[in-house]
Write the structure tokens for this entry.
Amino acid sequence: MAAHSTSRISVQNVGKRFCRSLKRSMWYGMRDVSSELLGLPLDTTRLRRDEFWALDNVSFDVAPGECLGVIGPNGAGKSTLLKMIAGIIPPDRGTIRVRGRVGCLIEVGAGFHPLLSGRDNVYISGAILGMSRREIQSKFDDIVSFAGLESFIDSPVKHFSSGMFVRLGFSIAVHANPEVLLVDEALAVGDHEFTIRCRNRIAELQRCETSIVLVSHSEMLIREISQRCILMARSVAQIYPNANGAYDAYYSSVENNVHNAPVDINYNGRIRIVSVQNSKVPAFVRSKTDEPLLVTLQYECAESLDDTSFCLRLWNSSGGLVLELDSKSRGLPFDVPAGPGTIEITLDPLPLSPGSYWFAGGFRRSTEILSWSTRIINLQVTSAPGQSSGPGVLQPRASWSLTPEIFHRTQGQLTSLTGKITS
């Protein structure tokens, strides 16, 4: 891939190797440094004993105002990629070019001196990011206010919580007016209010043509603010034009990996779930948003239980509760006889946004949990071909009333629209 002349970030054929053995890693490091000092060529095309490619032949560009999301399992090389773009570690082969001032939030507390106050660390971190002392002084109050640390700014940062570290670090980075912003999973430790503030600030930076590379396990965040997405797995980076394609590929690989995973069940010995959808493992269900869902569970009851209810909860990938169905609250408490049994629950079409969800469920009586499975079904919702979706958990159908007459453009043709439309 040729580097685009207007790209803020250009990564071309980049590779990074690490060594599993500390002893060999130190020996290889000394040998490589000696070779460089003597002007001897280094062979970066092959691996030495105990080495592996953390990243291999990675190439992409990031344009001004673009947010590139980076997803993948733990250990896939996401943080390593960000550290190389930031210049913290060098690539073993390939080239990385970054144009403009860089702001980065890669590790919680990175760059802060624990014995110095928050005030002192603002000046130090701002200087590292290229801000002058006068610039830091003029923005100091805004930095502290955005972080919400007015009462703690003169305390040693060793007393800060991880969330306070993130708030201060992010605030410094975004007030440095960066042309390139690199954000790792560090935002995950911020509270809800600060996360919303960060999203709004990131949107402002995009409007100012700041290039952003965002590493996150938050599917909702990646879908909301990224234009393109990189899926990283086993040292390889695959670029997708949008988050939908990246997550479809990601969850397809997860589906294969978890097919034989056991159901996580907690029970007190009186009743237990033995299978879900006629399978003793959780099923990955691919569903379009206009299809009903049938959940079938088989259970074994050691003794008769009266006034029992079954509860089913749906969670999204961000850990948010989407819905709860409880048979008792729906007016359906039941007695469970000893022996095996089956429960079937048919859910009407759920207008869920594309993404990953999972069901948890179990039996309970009053406030007592009789049996509970934290993940009985993994649900992957995909959109229909050509269908787009925005942020949010739900994408319900809606009726639109249009007055006065307006025109709808489809494939270059204008069509008159009156009355109500369903979309």
Remarks:
- Confidence is low (pLDDT under 50) at residues 278-282.
- The longest strand covers residues 368-382.
- The chain has two domains: 9-255, 264-382.
- Residues 264-382 form a domain with the Coagulation Factor XIII; Chain A, domain 1 fold (CATH 2.70.50.60).
